[in-house]
Amino acid sequence: MTSPQLEFFKSQIGKTLDQTPSAAGNWLSGILLEIEPGFVKVSYTIRPDMCNPAKILHGGIASLMMDDVIGMANFVSESEVLMTSINLNVDFLSSAKLGEKVEVSAKLVRSGSNLNHWESVIRKESGKVVAKASSNMIKTHIKIKEILNQ
């Protein structure tokens, strides 16, 4: 049986993500490209409010993109409780300029009883890697149903 949160996000494929449970993710306004248990891919266009003074993607925003996509992927997993990041390790490998499009993907590496380990990558349309991250998420006491009913 598919979770209600996965069904919701599947209905958003090809659409701008601006009505999700994540306010920060709504601000990013990515376009959902793919979603399935253990994998998500979202496209973003680099806007002026995402850039540093050099007009390239700000490292904090790149980190937010990866953290949010990982969170979305984890949110549609089979867990009955919300999981939250306990770390996010980021490597910045190249830049993305104002106006460029990037794709951010997240894949589940390992699912444990209390922790899930994820990897995420930001790529330009050329395929060049802008940044990569790994993150561990831990179970909280908050039930997913409570979030969906807000």
Automatic annotation (TrEMBL):
Protein's name in the database: PaaI family thioesterase
Highest taxon of the lineage: Bacteria
UniProt lineage: Bacteria, Pseudomonadati, Bacteroidota, Cytophagia, Cytophagales
InterPro entries xrefs: ACOT13, HotDog_dom_sf, PAAI_dom, Thioestr_dom
PANTHER family found in the cross-reference section: ACYL-COENZYME A THIOESTERASE 13 (PTHR21660:SF1), THIOESTERASE SUPERFAMILY MEMBER-RELATED (PTHR21660)
Keyword Transcription: no
Molecular-function GO terms, alphabetical: fatty acyl-CoA hydrolase activity
Recorded family membership: Belongs to the thioesterase PaaI family.
Residue ranges constituting the Thioesterase domain according to the UniProt record: 56-131
Keywords, in A-Z order: Hydrolase
Species of origin: Algoriphagus formosus
